[in-house]
């Protein structure tokens, strides 16, 4: 029989359209219980009612569970490998590249890509799709206004060329904004587009169960062109990479054989 947590997940899926079954239970339960304590709710039903009545609690729930922190040029050495080794390798295969930033949060990752292409590969035609389950983070992405912390790791040359600074705000240039198409998408549920040369899925799967992670990596493999590359986060190794049909070309870069 389903226990209280499982019933809560079922109701959450029906009432809110959010399916947390693919996420690790201990981490989720700990966070949800702490949120409930903070608003003095003793039961999951009371908490669901409160989230229905007062949308700010629903927002807080989403923010707490999905953890959407990001930054430009996160883990710089990996972006250097991408620029110096992976992109030139992909361009040997195809002159136009189709790229997907999956779990893009507030846009720092797809905009970093757009700047790298604009600055270093100006003649390459690249389409960049950026998706996330959370529409509100993408609204922030489309706004394109960031603080100093978000750009702290970004090489100066990109900041100078592609941002306007107003007070403590860094406003991204329209020419970069125009290169990224944002779309709502749930990686555990929705259909994947095909024929990508490059997919980035970084710092998204940390709370996914092993089963959902493994299913996800298989689906990414299917969505890549032969020779295409999946770029993962710096704590995310794909243990069954060879079985899926990936070969490691550099740490955190998996190529479809
Ligand atoms: C920590 S951010 C990562 C942002 C960026 N990739 C980076 O590395 O800086 C994780 C993002 O994954 C998104 N996310 C979580 N579960 C998801 C799912 N099932 N489908 C799509 N996006 C999801 C969250 O909404 C959040 O914006």
Structure in words:
The protein has 257 residues and is α/β, with parallel strands linked by helices. The protein contains twelve helices and ten strands. It has two domains: 4-66, Chemotaxis receptor methyltransferase CheR, N-terminal domain (Chemotaxis Receptor Methyltransferase Cher, domain 1, Orthogonal Bundle), CATH 1.10.155; 76-256, Rossmann fold. The mean pLDDT is 94. Bound molecules: S-adenosylmethionine (SAM). S-adenosylmethionine (SAM) binds next to helix 6. This is protein-glutamate O-methyltransferase.
Concise synopsis of the structure shown:
The protein has 257 residues and is of the alpha/beta class. Helix content is 47%, strand content 21%. One of its GO terms (biological process) is methylation.
